């Protein structure tokens, strides 16, 4: 099983980033997919979840209206479009799959700073 995140980096406040997660080694279309984030010294928090079919999506209150999660079951990918980024969005972002079982990616750093 592999979940490989990409797209992180340094961006100024108000900017945008698009994170991608490429999945392999399991039946992607049967798993719900989520993005989590963990800031230094804090717990890992759920950012957004999309059901296996894409028919159900949920966001943390802190990102509603700014972030969009989507998936492509033909390409085994899930993305997180992040707009209007704030310094408090700075964290390591993790892709996660849940069947069960739960799988995790290695994370990608997002830094929002001027």
Main sheet properties: 7 strands, mixed
Report the total helices. 0
Overall radius of gyration: 13 Å
**Global shape:** globular
User: What level of helicity do the residues show?
Assistant: under 10%
Measured distance between first and last alpha carbons: 37 Å
Helix-and-strand structural type: mainly beta
**Beta strand count:** 11
- What percent strand? over 45%
The parts where pLDDT drops under 50 for at least 5 residues are none
The secondary-structure element order is EEEEEEEEEEE
State mean pLDDT (0 to 100 scale): 97
Describe the structure.
The chain is mainly beta and 114 residues long. 0% of the residues lie in helices and 54% in strands. Strands 2, 4, 5, 6, 9, 10 and 11 form a seven-stranded mixed beta sheet that branches. The chain has a four-stranded antiparallel beta sheet with strand order 1-3-8-7, with no helix packed on it. A hairpin with a 3-residue loop joins strand 9 and strand 10 (102-104). It is globular. The chain starts with a strand and ends with a strand. The model has no long low-confidence stretch (mean pLDDT 97).
Keywords summarizing the entry:
114 residues, mainly beta, globular
SSE topology sketch:
Layout lengths: L1 E5 L2 E3 L5 E8 L7 E7 L5 E7 L6 E3 L7 E6 L4 E6 L8 E8 L3 E3 L3 E5 L2
Parallel strand pairs: 2-11
Antiparallel strand pairs: 1-3, 3-8, 4-5, 4-9, 5-6, 7-8, 9-10, 9-11
Structure summarized in a few sentences:
The chain has no helices and 11 strands.
